[in-house]
């Protein structure tokens, strides 16, 4: 975050420098207000570029075996261009190389999900995925299996049958 702030300042100063150079080349005939306008446009332009490149940059840093399973695009009134080009602000990835199986429940997989959000630290969440029940629950030592006749208990969250997590990890 600090380096992004420094880069934003440098972009503003650089754009203001371009306006100053234009002003000097025109022998001070261009208006003075051009300098702060260029600085503001440089700052805004850099921030927009950083916002839209964040997702591609973060996914390029993922190690082998970590696959993106979900991303969230956002539109905001204070970013009117996002209605034309929505911005990816969050995504979820799963570590496919370190999936563990359970000896007591053959269809249970213990997985590490990584939650990424713009300007936030990444979070690792350990989950249990039941391929048979098509459900997921937070890992804990008190987790109980969903009863076949009763359906899912409150610990488990039902996943859609076409969920990318099921498609990636459950081989049927």
Question: Could you please describe the fold and organization of this structure?
Answer:
- With 172 residues, the chain is of the alpha+beta class.
- 33% of the residues lie in helices and 26% in strands.
- It contains 3 helices and 7 strands.
- Strands 1, 2, 3, 4, 5, 6 and 7 form a 7-stranded antiparallel β-sheet that branches.
- The longest helix is centred in the N-terminal third of the chain and has 27 residues.
- It is elongated.
- The chain starts with a helix and ends with a helix.
Q: What keywords describe this structure?
A:
172 residues, alpha+beta, 33% helix, 26% strand
Strand content: 25-35%
Report the uncertain regions.
Answer: none
Query: Which H/E pattern describes the elements?
Result: HHEEEEEEEH
Q: Name the shape in a single word.
A: elongated
Provide the gyration radius in Å: 24 Å
Extended strand count: 7
* Share of residues in helices: 25-40%
Largest sheet features: 7 strands, antiparallel
Distance between the termini: 44 Å
Instruction: Provide the residue-averaged pLDDT.
Output: 88
Which structural class should the secondary elements be placed in? alpha+beta
What is the overall number of helices?
3
